[in-house]
Known about the structure:
Layout: E1 3-5, E2 9-13, H1 17-31, H2 35-45, E3 50-55, E4 58-72, E5 75-87, H3 96-110, E6 115-118, H4 123-127, E7 132-143, E8 156-158, H5 168-176, E9 182-183, H6 186-193, E10 201-207, E11 212-221, E12 228-236, H7 239-250, E13 258-263, E14 279-290, H8 293-299, E15 308-315, E16 324-331, E17 334-339, E18 345-348, H9 349-357, H10 362-367, E19 371-373, H11 375-384
Parallel strand pairs: 5-6, 12-13, 15-18
Antiparallel strand pairs: 1-2, 2-3, 3-4, 4-5, 4-9, 6-14, 7-13, 7-14, 8-10, 10-11, 11-12, 15-16, 16-17, 18-19
Helix pairs in contact: 1-2
Amino acid sequence: MVKEMTAQFEYSTLSHPQDIQQLMYILEQCFLSPLSAEEAYINQIGIENFRIIRGLEQLAGGLATLDMGQWWGGVRVPMTGIAAVGIAPEYRGSGAAIALMQHTLKELYAKGIPLSALYPAVQSLYRKVGYEQGGSWCNWEVATKSIQMREQPLPLQRIVNINHEVFHELYQQQARQTHGYLDRHPAIWKRLIQPDEKETFYAYFIGSKEKPQGYILFSQHPAEDGAILRIKDWVILTAAAAQSFWSFLASHRSQIDKVRWRSSAIDSLTLLLPEQTAKLKNTMRWMLRIVDVVKALEMRGYPSEIQAELHLEIQDNLLDANNGRFILSVANGRGEVTKGGKGELQLDVRELAPLYTSLFTPYHLQIAGKLHGTETAISAATQIFTGASPWMADFF
């Protein structure tokens, strides 16, 4: 059992029935959801994956930790997602949320976790503990009649008995090639294939059942301004699968008015459409925290053709081991970190996140006042951290 004391708060795992009930009430109040939904969520994530903070012998709040992975440069890096951060109203502004996050990050570092990601309700809170914008989460929309694609090179095979395990191998093939994609937590997979009481859920392989080239999972919903087909998850591994994906969606035009799906801020799927009719419906950025600088830099992948050396000077006000100078040497797609060096690129651990993910270039981070570096260091960092716009399809 994890248990830590500070002058004002006590941090621990969630175990006692009374605490579980109290946390359910706090989360119900924070997220405007029924108590039954919060109970189901806690059971789905697992009580052992929750952390709580207590003040004056009373539960002040808690959060969930989801141990999974994230793909960077074609390599899976262990990452812990933080979700359901909830603080009781009477403890808001007391420092309970910051204390909860600080303790959690120290625990993650002790466990050897390199990265942590979350979706912020309040960005300023998480910046105080070292998180910064890491990538995008975007919803796209297109009018079904505007797709205008008829040719379908591959068949679509209906999946009747839906088990998320049948999608894993196809998903991992796409995830490996997608900057920022998750190696999903089991709870995320279960939520994807678990329809709510108001929806009917459909699943299809794109191509033959023996050797599919992708899949599509979706539900259909009536709406005042026209029926909507919501794609819950998709994988497309070939040009033929992409063509078949759009043709299949176009075939719904007599009943469905709009199609919505999640993709990158720069969505290559829309390149197949005859006109620029697909639009971003909404977008937000998730945040990343470099928990262990050395492990994070050494475990991700890099462009295979790059051979470069970057001298970093990092400041981390929470995790002492991340402070100081480091030399990142990159060759053959991998990185090696040694202590020391010239410290030619100076930045806070918070600003290391959007550099690490390639969300922003070193030049643009420098213009924004987020880092300082010599011309040599900026050039090396630009080569090392080049990459496609990072995104993930999952909200947690």
